[in-house]
Design goal:
The protein is an alpha/beta fold and about 200 residues long. Helices cover about 20% and strands about 30% of the residues.
Length: about 200
């Protein structure tokens, strides 16, 4: 029986090798911050939810998948072009790895949005936009390289993701990446980390 991915019915489950397993979330490791209460970014609008997870390229984000749970992805990887952020190439290996691990559904990834660099009560506008999308999602995946920490931007995204939303840490081994690798002058490979959305170097 093929891997059917995730199913949503109150809780998220992973289907692997014909077995249904409850997804073990990491909400206790990824708590929201107290400042989230100052904003209404956690308020749900059903019409916005449908528009956000419409498949294809939208202004500021890309959605893969035609059905299933709504999954927001936070990842810190930038491609080999250095300072140029390419949404399609940067997301391709992340999406492939998630599919291999059994995560299927409508997968949403941010693009660089320069118009959201201003602050609202001391919080970057792009963080609040992430918080709004997270509130309209069934699951938020926080992806990082194995044995590495989160980027500074991801730490802000974690703090402004409401606790009522299911959250999961996904670690991806360094060797799983090809497009995101580059060699330095000593021939060593490394993965470039950047805060998403703003596209600045970490």
């Amino acid at each position: 029986m093929p891997d059917l991915g995730l199913a949503y019915s109150g809780i998220l489950s992973v289907f692997r090798a014909g077995e249904q397993r409850e997804l073990e979330c990491d909400n206790n490791k990824l708590p929201q911050c107290e400042d989230l209460a100052k904003f209404n970014s956690h308020v749900i609008s059903p019409s916005l939810s449908r528009k956000l997870y419409r498949p294809g390229l939208n202004h500021g984000f890309l959605v893969y998948g035609l059905g299933g749970p709504k999954i927001l992805i936070s990842h810190p990887f930038q491609g080999i072009r250095g300072d140029k952020y390419d949404l399609y190439n940067n997301s391709s290996e992340v999406i492939s790895t998630l599919h291999n691990q059994g995560y299927y559904g409508r997968l949403l990834l941010f693009d660089y949005v320069p118009g959201l660099n201003f602050e609202i009560q001391g919080v970057p506008a792009w963080v609040l936009w992430f918080s709004i999308i997270a509130a309209h999602s069934d699951l938020v995946l926080f992806i990082k390289e194995y044995d590495q920490g989160f980027s500074q931007a991801q730490k802000q995204e974690i703090e402004f993701t409401p606790d009522r939303v299911q959250k999961k840490i996904v670690e991806i081994p360094h060797q799983d990446f090809i497009w995101t690798k580059e060699s330095d002058q000593w021939g060593e490979t490394r993965t470039t980390l950047v805060p998403l959305v703003r596209g600045e170097s970490a």
